[in-house]
Amino acid sequence: MQISSQEWLGLAIMALSCAFAAWRGGRMERRTAAVIAAAWTFSILLDQDGHHGVQWRILAIDILLLGYLLHEVAFGKRLWPLFAAAAHGFVVLTHAAFFLDGRIQHWGFFTAYYVWSYAVLAALVGGAVWRPREQV
Q1: Is residue 136 in a domain?
Q2: How far apart are CA 89 and CA 65, in angstroms?
Q3: Total domains, the chain
Q4: For the residues 92-116, what does the mean pLDDT come to?
Q5: Which comes out higher in pLDDT, residue 125 or 3?
Q6: Does residue 15 lie in a domain region?
Q7: In whole numbers, what is the pLDDT of the chain averaged over residues?
């Protein structure tokens, strides 16, 4: 398995974002940081040479992460998961677009994939920064 420089950069940004959310955030942010970190890690470990065809295992991980984020939207009391779920919905739609039209070049796919993934991380960090104080 060979990890590209773009994947290393993505891992570094994800690790810093999740570490910040775990340090500064509340329970929801810590839990979500752990789920996102696991999803990114498993996606890289299960990558089947991302330059050829639809990555079905990564799509499955992204759908599970979207389900988790939608659960936080439905049952949480914070606003940031709505933005994270919307952005991650676009990640899943990026997979669908690539499946439906193979003419999409891989660089376009990965650019959209990472842009929306970074938006999910931005929502998580924003949630950690602007969280209400928890009752002790």
Answers
A1: no
A2: 10
A3: 1
A4: 85
A5: 125
A6: no
A7: 90
